[in-house]
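quick one before i forget lol
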Amino acid sequence: MNQEKLYSLPDLPYGYKDLGPYISEEQLRLHHQKHHQAYVNGANIIFEKLEKAKQDSTELDVKAIAKELSFQASGHLLHSLFWENLQPASQKKDELGKSLEEALNEEFGSMERFKKLFTQAAVSVEGSGWAILVYCQKTKRPIIVQAEKHNVNVIPAFSILMVLDVWEHAYYLDYKNERAKFIEALWQIINWETVTKRLEYLLN
């Protein structure tokens, strides 16, 4: 199969040590190289199965294939966005872009309230999943949603601005079972510039 048609593990935009003390080198390396790589591999295996079926007319369980591809590909894509949502604390800029600040203040009343509600969404995800800030272009408003696993409760056509991974593999080495402490730590390394650029792309 043409390698250009397969997914690949993206490089991190920082070093494995650079998110400390909030995410340790060991935790980040395991999360990126093992867990994210597993979703890349899983999705590519399915693409290869589809290609093989096209070549020799192999019968496929379409329902099972579609479900598995949704899980693996969503895992890859959400992780790719997640890495971009973070930055070393030494490089962090506290100021939000004007467009993002205005959108969050208008929808949630204040930045503090947005953080509180987003944190609640992240803490309360049932099992493994994500807290996600999306933007609805129809109503012109940012909305907080949850995704169980990678692909349950996802609302189609809502554009993603920010994601927070709350699978245990994202934090267990550093925070054990204390998800809330992990979430609180991540506020120290959110890359607001990236979040702002995603919103501005939608507004333009």
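fyi The beta strands are 129-136, 141-148, 159-165.
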